[in-house]
Amino acid sequence: MIFTGVYKNKKISIFKKPFSKEWSIIEKEGKNKIYVIPAENLIFFYEKTNIRKVSELREYYKFVLEEKYGNITFDVHLEDGTAYVLAYKNFDVKDFYALDGEIFSLLRVYNLLSEDDGYCINFEKEKLTFVSVKNKNIDAYRVILEKDADIVNNPDWLKENLPELENKPVLMVGDSGNINKLKELFKDYRLIENHYCLNDLAVAFGGALKGILKDHRLSFRKTTLSEEDKIRLKNLFLISIASYLVSYFLIEKVSENKLKEIKNLQRQEIRKAFPDVPVVSPYMQIKSMVKLGSNFDLSKKLAEINLPKDAKIYLIEFYDGKLIIKGESSQPPENTKSVKKLPNGNFEFEIEVK
Fold it and tell me: Which pTM does this prediction carry?
């Protein structure tokens, strides 16, 4: 099976042998394309939760995110009592096997090359994506955009804006020529060499690895039905109703156990046809839970912020109960910590919620 990772104009394919863990990079492009969403288009956070059903979590965050951002595409993953939420905007592809976030592609490459906690940094000309890795997961991340500056060729700017790094391994990806220029900045750290592919293909490579490693977390499974799905679902219900009517007329009295069997069969068939669509969607129940208050600190803080519709988010940090959001908009939001007028007429802002 061939999986092709796609990041912007970069592509790379991986072939996995059937019934084997062996895989290799090949030149042939596969039909199973995994598109990597740039980090600046992502909203990612995680928090502890008492909810144990993914379907209920989806409905909870559907309410939270739609209240805040309107109609936004998101996915939820539940693991060890922690809810991981990844949403994206301004990214549209139609034919895909899966979607992946840039920060997770970087994490996957880092974990392939190192078992230690450390950092992965993707250097692009006008953007830097920084991921801190702890226990093989994303501990924190930062996206820095500098539209009017050549980030890679401005080491002084980098020193001022990079987070303070501990003495841990560092994986640097991006344009290979630029990375060679930047190695002097990281001479005191243990640099990890990416021997699998060119560094400018590393993000696409991390996306392709998603299919090979069977990483189904945050793949943006369907939360709404397409027209084709609706037709299939309609036909499924018609078959179910017909089966029930036949049973009704043939049997004078259907026992309670028989009714349960029919309902369970319907649920099983729906799950087979639509494995990623919850059979029961308790939206109103979750909505009432939100109104009553729930133990979701980050969600509450996000709900306190009122951003302009054209706001572009460059940075989201949540640490020790404090939420920091940096971005740009045509009008400064309310209750900003700092605002700066940009040459293009927009306002660069920073919001802090404790």
Answer: 0.64
| Alpha-carbon gap, residue 21 to 23, rounded angstroms | 7
Sign of CA dihedral 207, 208, 209, 215: positive
Q: What's the mean pLDDT when you consider all of the chain? A: 79
- Between CA 294 and CA 298, with CA 295 as vertex, the angle to 5 degrees is 105
Structure tokens that stand for 152 in this block: 């890679």
270 pLDDT higher than 60: no
- The separation between the first and the last C-alpha atoms of the chain, rounded to the nearest angstrom, is 48
**Ordered DSSP codes for 337-352:** SEEEE-TTS-EEEEEE
Spatial neighbors of 284 by CB under 8 A, at least 6 apart, are: none
Are the C-beta atoms of 114 and 108 separated by less than 8 Å?
no
| Side-chain half-sphere exposure of 318, counting CA atoms within 13 A | 14
Six token digits for residue 19: 């019934």
Cα separation of 204 and 206, whole Å?
A: 5
Phi/psi of residue 210, each to 5°? Answer: -60, -40
pLDDT for the residue 232? 59
- Alpha carbon 214 to its chain centroid, in Å, reads 16
Tokens representing 125? 């000309």
329, 310 contact by CB (below 8 A):
yes
The token pair at 219 is 């793949």
CB 103 within 8 A of CB 129: yes
